[in-house]
Amino acid sequence: MAATTMDQLVSLCKRRGFIFQSADIYGGLQGVYDYGPLGVELKNNLKAAWWRAMVYERDDVEGLDASILTHQKVLHYSGHEDTFTDPLQDCKKCKNRFRADHIKDGKCPNCGSTDLTEPRMFNLMFKTAIGPVEDSGNFAYLRPETAQAIFTQFKNVVDSTSRKAPFGIAQIGKSFRNEITPRNFIFRVREFEQMELEFFVKPGTDMEWLETWKENRLKWWEEQGLDLSKMHILTVPKEDLAHYSKATYDLEYQFPHGLEELEGIADRQDFDLGNHTRYQDELALSAKVNKNSDSSAKLALFDDTDKKWYVPFVVEPSAGVDRGVLAVLTEAYTEETLPSGETRTVLKLKKHLAPVKVAIIPLKRNNPDIMKLAHEIKANLLKTGIGRVMLEDSGNIGKAYRRHDEIGTPLCVTVDFESIEKSPTSVTIRNRDTMAQERINVSDLPAYLKDFFLK
Fold it and tell me: What is the DSSP letter of 289?
């Protein structure tokens, strides 16, 4: 089977309502996308799977949902104000801008001109005014990552939950980076979502936990349907490590545009908690407050064995939601040639990720008895908790099957004349992947679907 192309995915996403260009009627906003009716379901299902694996299925992780607006000092002491930059070059001929490390052989990637400006550093963070007066002291940043709020709320979480290391704080949320050259559909954008875990461990155990989380995350992506033969573990070279990192693994996936990072797993050491604690120490000194070993300002944990405070190290698995959506779409997209010679496009998504779990298809939408039964079946199936159940009333059974193949619906339930004319009442269930059909009594349908989706 030929590799999935980006054009195929972009076409499917627009045609079937997964992803649209933001402000499309005004020509679009570069690097910003909107998730349509099916895209929001897929995205939410991926996030729910991550949250379930990180928080519900573990006994050592708490959740957090922090604000997007971020205090300037947070990003100053985290190092972002000084280091969160990219080298920028302009082409004097076509007036386009590019990251300097994306320019090869000194030629503009757009027009080929060699008449380029000298590289200059460009800060990737978005600023926004706070309050009615815009001046240098009244501003905040839109957060460039979700991690810093976890660090600044570390003490509140520990105090309210009595957690001891090792433990983690998980968060899913929007982040913003003023990318110079957004590209490759939703892979590199200016507004995106992250799924991040900060896992706090005793110093000296961090490298062991780094290996543990690498294996954990690979297994999770496999459970989302990714073929591990299309993934590569990159040990990030020392010279390419982020300013906070002691060691990092990049889990790379073979996207349509090439092998690129899907998730990073970093050993952040005590960089963040240590830096934020140092700021608290400065505040204490400036206020002439006496410090002691268990200072309330310290972002630290107490070791019951050694009877002293310590700043934990942090292992951070951080994945992009949008990149995750792109990866599962890439993996699931399939074109099959049927015995009739027809080409069938099908999204072979894992059941738990499918935007629509079951489509109820009335054979005749102008038949009141068939429609009444279809509505009753949908109402009963919603009570099972399997996810979204859609009443498909297009009126053409063949087109309905093809549509739901293309959007990844695992099962279609057809209500036909036999359903209303014979007793006991029965319907036809069609499987997306095999296209096999079977007849089942309506009374058995909830149990059948629960077994199919929840086993």
Answer: P
Which CATH architecture describes the domain 356-454? 3-Layer(aba) Sandwich (3.40)
- Closest by Cα among 213, 173, 216 to 196: 173
Per-residue pLDDT tens digits for 264-305: 999 999 999 988 887 665 655 455 544 443 334 578 999 988
List beta partners, residue 2. Answer: none
Compute the distance between CA of residue 406 and CA of residue 347 in angstroms, rounded to an integer.
5
Buried b / exposed e across 242-258, counting CB within 10 Å, b at 16+? eebbbbbbbbbbbbbee
Strand partners, 337: 343
343 — phi, psi (to 5°)? Answer: -95, 125
Burial class (CB in 10 A: 0-12, 13-18, 19+), 283: exposed
Check residue 171 and report its DSSP letter: E
Burial track 168-191 (b if 16+ CB lie within 10 A, e otherwise): bbbbbbebbbbbbebeebbbbbbb
pTM of the predicted model as reported, rounded to 2 decimal places = 0.90
* Residue 95: band (very low, low, confident or very high) from pLDDT cuts 50, 70, 90: confident
Q: How far apart are CA 359 and CA 375, in angstroms?
A: 11
What average pLDDT does the segment 334-345 reach?
Answer: 91
Alpha carbons 92 and 102: distance in angstroms, whole number: 16
CB 359 within 8 A of CB 420: no
Q: What is the DSSP letter of 240?
A: G
* Domain 6-68+143-270+312-328 superfamily per CATH: Bira Bifunctional Protein; Domain 2 (3.30.930.10)
**CA–CA gap between residue 421 and residue 419 (Å, rounded):** 6
Nearest to 47 by CA among 193, 157, 158: 193
Q: Tell me, what amino acid is at 434?
A: T
Torsion (CA) 186, 190, 195, 200 in degrees, nearest 10: 140
Q: Is 65 exposed, middle or buried (0-12, 13-18, 19+ CB in 10 A)?
A: exposed
3-state DSSP assignment of residue 150 = helix
Distance CA(14)–CA(405), nearest Å, equals 16
The encoded tokens of residue 196 equal 């991040």
Selection from 35, 3, 21 nearest residue 355 by Cα: 35
Res 282: pLDDT: 60
Interatomic CA distance for residues 330 and 46, integer angstroms: 14
3-state secondary structure of 173: strand
Q: Domain residue spans in the chain?
A: 6-68+143-270+312-328, 85-123, 356-454
Q: What is the DSSP letter of 454?
A: H
The backbone region for 117, taken as left when phi is positive above 0, alpha when psi lies in -120 to 50, beta otherwise, is beta
